[in-house]
């Protein structure tokens, strides 16, 4: 490309008053595929020799990659007898070189503002210019860059000037700033370590500063790498970036000053309290244990007693009591159980300390690391519950307590020998005396039954049969609760006094009481209870999972709907909990069995169940355990990698359940499943198996096939014969090719009993084929994603995965409707192309759509291009990194119920949207607004076109009665939360965060719940908990009006300042790319 360049020169008079003191030259050079516009200004050096040389050689030297620097002095000496050293006198400095560049390329406006838009007319989009002043001796050499880029038919100019020596100086400053900040960080961390102990946590401002330090260091390293990788010629262009990074490091260093202590009370320690029933009696035992823990004489305490006597309950009480004090920095609780394993115990202790130990590491190495972790805790108490056999503390990595280190170690066990062999101080837990036993019984049974003298005598007789064992007492109380008929009590006494044979390792009295409670359950409830014993000891069982197993086994009676059957399952669980046969844990979402209760269940089922769950088996149990009468086999949570090719017993006709999950199985013999002709439930999940044998296809009674987390599984044998199949789970498996051959109407028609499907397809066509030929499913989770794309199946703790469809990395043709399964509740789109709005999906009537999450769909311009029914049902709307999103809802006549069900809206990284909510939407159920990193967003709540407030309006109120949280973060273009004279009435607001929204000048919130006393302080009831803003200056300047009092003064005690630097729009884009790409 040939262009004529007009330029000016002789801009600055030299001190020698030589007419040609200053020289200028400009021309275009072709370098590879790029055309460079080159411009230079330089001093004349009181003669013509140097200028003549530079005119001929300067640009060639600059563009010569092999010559890293300009060797003017050497070249001159070869072409002329003159030497640079012969030039004397002061040398003129060209201080207006930037202006020369501007004039050379036609833009005089750069004289005052380097960032203005130049009046440049060129045909190419990008024009790169190298500007240089060459010199030697005292004459500085500098190189800059001028870049012209096209954007929306306008050209934007950015001129960065720096020199190699200048850049070197800047890099040294950068290195020094990093060193200073590292030293500051080390000091802060040392001080934090000294002050931190159990029950304390770092201040939020300290945590935020440390996070900012990490981010700043990462950015500095990125800049260093960029400078190192850039060719020498162009490094000077990075001078501004290096300088800005240095200043950022220094700014963070300045912010690292904190007044007072660096820690505050940790509110989460309240949640550390272990759930435990009220302890009745055994006061002497509890006080003895506590005395040893507080004193220096005893460091290792062994609490022993028979099963069910209350050892764990006592230690939970002691644990929670210790939390209220400050004598120990850490209280650690770990359950050991009967299937003791060194590495598992090491990992469990490390987990309690917030650490992690690898499965691949040697036990001795893990012991050393664990010792270091424990040593760092300072004074701590380690409680090991349910220890069955002795072990060496050094083998685990547990430090032996001494009077100097202040460590304490407690274990509970049924075996006095364990206590003695390990050298612990024994504390024996006795049975309850009759008086305390009656108190415990009545506390569970109910005090209102005592006025009946006859009933009281029966109670005493029943309690006496328990021999003071708390577990037996509690179990019987739960079983007899609400019974007032004396004949029933007499029958209970007769049963308890019956002749029951001895059971190894189980106390007769406890077994008798537990068995009594079991016997009084209905038959179906008994079967449900016994099913729980298939899980490992001390395993926390998910309630929903347990109920689904019961339903699949036929233990729950058929009802009008699956939901009704689920409710019936929850009713059974409640009965088992009330009878103390199951213990509620994990906030009521899980249950577990006391080990004695599980022992009883396994004893009852010893002829029908083979249970070796969680026993660390590496191979199948020996053949003695396999009998033809087996009904259920549980080998879950072991380490088995292979299954023998042959089993002596040819058939197991009664076997209905085979649980092999959480093992290391890589292959299964071809004929293995032929042994189980009546199998109903097969769980192979969490195994590295690559394929299933064809014998799976012969399981024509199979109702449940679980293969989730079989990440190596690529294909299945034909499952069309599995006509009884109701549940198929393929989540996170690699099964994909199978479904591409299976998905046709004929084969799917043969799976017409399928009710639960969790898996995926490789394209929309297979989804349409599947959904178009299916009846209504009760539960499904479906991922549609190409085979060559990573599969990231959604698991969100906030939302259930029920009835979820996720489209990921899919090309969507708006001309072809997507057929979704009936009653879809959650729709997630990620990295999809071809969709400009959800209307493009051709959604049919979906009255159950509750959750909509959209991520990185770059062509999406609106969530809904027009009004549709789904807008009324959505409860959760999450929009992230939608680069072209302009509106949430497009044009169309308002139906008056837009988003009437919406509870939460999240908008992040959507830089083209200017308005978020409209005042004609029905947002009475909205609970949370979370908006961040939307560079061009101007307003949160916008009046409708027909209802907007006019200039004469005195004020308009919009009600948000359920809004609890408002978060606005890094919105550099946000001018208003809502329009002038508009107020948001929020009756329930608890959290407000307005961070890095510098243009916002008014907080338009009216909180009716705020009331003040005579001193101007907030008085109860007040729901507002916290207000977080970035700087005090912004808070001081922002307006927040209230009709009755100065609201800013009233809430100042709720203020928290983040003191973060506001991000530019470009920074927001970059941060979003880093977070979500």
TrEMBL record:
<dbReference type="InterPro" id="IPR036388">
    <property type="entry name" value="WH-like_DNA-bd_sf"/>
</dbReference>
<dbReference type="Pfam" id="PF23559">
    <property type="entry name" value="WHD_DRP"/>
</dbReference>
<keyword id="KW-0677">Repeat</keyword>
<dbReference type="InterPro" id="IPR057135">
    <property type="entry name" value="At4g27190-like_LRR"/>
</dbReference>
<keyword id="KW-0547">Nucleotide-binding</keyword>
<keyword id="KW-0611">Plant defense</keyword>
<protein>
    <recommendedName>
        <fullName>Protein-serine/threonine phosphatase</fullName>
    </recommendedName>
</protein>
<dbReference type="InterPro" id="IPR058922">
    <property type="entry name" value="WHD_DRP"/>
</dbReference>
<feature type="domain" description="Disease resistance protein At4g27190-like leucine-rich repeats">
    <location>
        <begin position="896"/>
        <end position="1002"/>
    </location>
</feature>
<dbReference type="InterPro" id="IPR027417">
    <property type="entry name" value="P-loop_NTPase"/>
</dbReference>
<dbReference type="InterPro" id="IPR003591">
    <property type="entry name" value="Leu-rich_rpt_typical-subtyp"/>
</dbReference>
<feature type="domain" description="Disease resistance protein winged helix">
    <location>
        <begin position="534"/>
        <end position="601"/>
    </location>
</feature>
<dbReference type="InterPro" id="IPR042197">
    <property type="entry name" value="Apaf_helical"/>
</dbReference>
<dbReference type="InterPro" id="IPR002182">
    <property type="entry name" value="NB-ARC"/>
</dbReference>
<dbReference type="InterPro" id="IPR036457">
    <property type="entry name" value="PPM-type-like_dom_sf"/>
</dbReference>
<dbReference type="InterPro" id="IPR001611">
    <property type="entry name" value="Leu-rich_rpt"/>
</dbReference>
<feature type="domain" description="NB-ARC">
    <location>
        <begin position="286"/>
        <end position="446"/>
    </location>
</feature>
<keyword id="KW-0067">ATP-binding</keyword>
<dbReference type="InterPro" id="IPR050905">
    <property type="entry name" value="Plant_NBS-LRR"/>
</dbReference>
<dbReference type="Pfam" id="PF00931">
    <property type="entry name" value="NB-ARC"/>
</dbReference>
<dbReference type="InterPro" id="IPR032675">
    <property type="entry name" value="LRR_dom_sf"/>
</dbReference>
<dbReference type="Pfam" id="PF13855">
    <property type="entry name" value="LRR_8"/>
</dbReference>
<keyword id="KW-0433">Leucine-rich repeat</keyword>
<comment type="similarity">
    <text>Belongs to the disease resistance NB-LRR family.</text>
</comment>
<dbReference type="Pfam" id="PF23247">
    <property type="entry name" value="LRR_RPS2"/>
</dbReference>
